[in-house]
């Protein structure tokens, strides 16, 4: 089954009312407009953070998370912070329970532009997200909407800049921006879009705008009676989030209408959402739109007025490509430039060639695998169907060579 690092959104079971109300923001510079540069890697928006005026860390900017999360408990252990309370979280699979601590009085400084003072954050008991392995990225946590929701937030994927506007000074953009009403629920933005499935089934679905998800589209099949799997799907680990891997299927939907623009033949994840405990509130949504769609636009989210603006960018017309090998890899090593097979899709080109789980990839088409990072290596497996791939691997101390040809799987 194909593994991807897609879902990092958090669903809190008991933590909603535990957060301090005395938090403050300190602005360094203009009060009307703040530009914050970001890195964009493996379809994640990554911000440089200085934690407690001491440690430089990297956090993912996540509109799909209500709270800010530190994944590395060893950092707060090192700083000898006071853990206020241990409590239960609901994982991204909407059924698994994991554990975290409430920490108060934290400061988070973003690129000398803005400092969030006296924050309450969640510190995971263990690093349930495993970004190093699964995304090939050194990530320490997630910045949630608790930091940004008082602003109008503009995300410019082309320039790699997040701009924060004071709501009173923000003017609605002109040009090619499409204005869409949104619903803010638990500080997360939801939009209703028309989705066309196979056989011309057209559904109006409520979708979360989730910059913490590196997927294109995720649909919860049991949230609408007409939301069915396409005829052509493959089984998949849809992603890794709190609580482990999320099981489901991969396929395509025909069309997605985003206001005045329309996307076609979209790679889509299909998952049944759990209905136990506090997950019932999330059942009112039908799915998630992630960065593989969002990065085709410049996006403005006005949390106060509950409206969003979308303007297509130069990436808008690109096709949605998916892995054509059947291989799923994880990274390891100090530089995260060593790669191991996590899974092999049955019946895929890689499976037919004889590759197996836990094979260590040593060379790719004659070049050392260490020359790539995980994102660029995975991109090689999305090339044109028919491309020849030759891998040398190490299996139980034995060097082996395999050759296969990429093939469309969905």
Characterize the structure shown.
This protein has six helices and 31 strands. It has 410 residues and is mainly β. Strands 17-18-23-19-22-21 form a six-stranded mixed β-barrel. Strands 6-7-12-8-11-10 form a six-stranded mixed barrel. Strands 4-14-13-24-25-15 form a six-stranded antiparallel sheet, with no helix packed on it. It is 8% helix and 47% strand.
Q: Summed up, what is this model?
A:
The chain has helices at 73-78, 131-135, 145-148, 291-294, 349-353, 374-380, and strands spanning 2-3, 11-12, 24-27, 33-37, 39-41, 44-51, 55-61, 69-70, 83-90, 97-110, 114-124, 141-143, 152-156, 161-165, 178-181, 183-185, 188-196, 202-209, 217-220, 234-241, 244-258, 261-271, 287-289, 297-302, 307-312, 327-332, 338-344, 360-364, 367-368, 388-395, 398-405. It is mainly β.
The N- and C-terminal alpha carbons lie at a distance of: 13 Å
Give the biggest sheet: 6 strands, mixed, barrel
Structural class: mainly beta
β-strand percent reads: over 45%
State the helicity in percent bands.
under 10%
Given the C-alpha coordinates, what overall shape results? globular
Number of strands: 31
The averaged pLDDT comes out at: 87
Q: How much is the radius of gyration in Å?
A: 21 Å
- Residue runs with pLDDT of under 50 for 5 or more positions: 1-17, 276-281
User: Helical stretch count?
Assistant: 6
Tell me the strand order in the biggest sheet: 17-18-23-19-22-21
